[in-house]
Amino acid sequence: MNFKAMGVVLVATLLLSGLQVSADPAIESFAKSAAEARLADQPLPQLSFILPEATLEQAVDAQFAYVDHLLTRDEIAGHKGAVAGAGGQEKLGLNGPLSAVLFESGWLESKDSPVLNIQPDVTPAVETELGLILAKPITEPVTDIASLKEKVAAIVPVVELPTARLAWPNPVTAVDLTATNIGSAHYIVGPRTTDLALNLDQLKIRLYSGKQLINETTGGAAHRGQWWNFLHQINEALDRGYELEAGQLVISGALGEIRRDGAGDYRVTFGKLGTIKFSLKPLK
């Protein structure tokens, strides 16, 4: 697919959505082509390859338009952070985490011990994360963690499985990740915990593939801590024009190593928050 040759501009759908969308035809064209590729299960375009001078602000505009296209077939279920660790932020030249949208179609419950079929040429990432479920709508910026906790129904362990077909010729940048909604796909939500006093940064998290331990980390792997990251993601979503609804999920980003081990049976222990079990099976 020649993404540079695509010049179709997004118009009515984006303007009528009520969301702040870039007026840049090149950004809007990218977003449309990316959404069409995602819906057709084709490789996503790379913004930094098509527009080498694209800024992170333009990537946010592209993500906004990309998400808006996908909302013709889906709904927003929450918001996610990415590059939560200090090392990843330094590597990508960031001063904080990235942000993206979670879709309703990707929500899975751990009580169902989900089994996901995977394509032979696309291996999802396996990311251990923590999240919160909102108890009430949030329409204005939240000033501090104490105020945020008043709006939280539960804390949850989460396994996110970002999946996207990529054929990117250039090294991956924060611009590329942001523009394509950071590969948001499936995510598994674990048992609800209402003890908001639990020290999430000290929580020990262990990921097993079969009986083998393949990732061990803590909630504190998120730079500045879990609650700072939750607060940041909520306020970032509001700043981008979203309103958060009761029941929506907010996750802070991957903790520890991001694994791509392919098919297998997985188990993640989250200390007092419980356990998530799931399987990845080759699609036959």
Describe what this molecule looks like in 3D.
With about 280 residues, the protein is an alpha+beta fold. The chain folds into two domains: about 70 residues, no CATH class; about 210 residues, Fumarylacetoacetate hydrolase, domain 2 (Alpha-Beta Complex), CATH 3.90.850. It has eight helices and twelve strands. Helix 2 packs across helix 4. The longest helix is centred in the N-terminal third of the chain and has 15 residues. It is globular, with a radius of gyration of 18 Å.
Coarse structural class:
alpha+beta
**Number of DSSP-assigned strands:** 12
Give the overall form: globular
| Full CATH superfamily name of the largest domain | Fumarylacetoacetase-like, C-terminal domain
Helical percentage: 10-25%
Shape-level CATH architecture of the largest domain: Alpha-Beta Complex
Query: Distance N terminus to C terminus?
Result: 26 Å
Run of helices and strands: HHHHEHEEEEHEHEEEHEEE
CATH topology of the largest domain: Fumarylacetoacetate hydrolase, domain 2
**Top CATH class of the largest domain:** Alpha Beta
Q: Mind sketching the topology for me?
A:
Elements lengths: L11 H5 L8 H15 L7 H4 L5 H15 L5 E7 L3 H6 L6 E6 L3 E3 L5 E4 L8 E8 L10 H5 L2 E10 L12 H6 L6 E4 L14 E6 L2 E7 L7 H14 L9 E3 L12 E6 L5 E8 L2
Parallel strand pairs: 1-10, 3-7, 4-12
Antiparallel strand pairs: 1-2, 5-6, 5-10, 6-7, 8-9, 8-11, 11-12
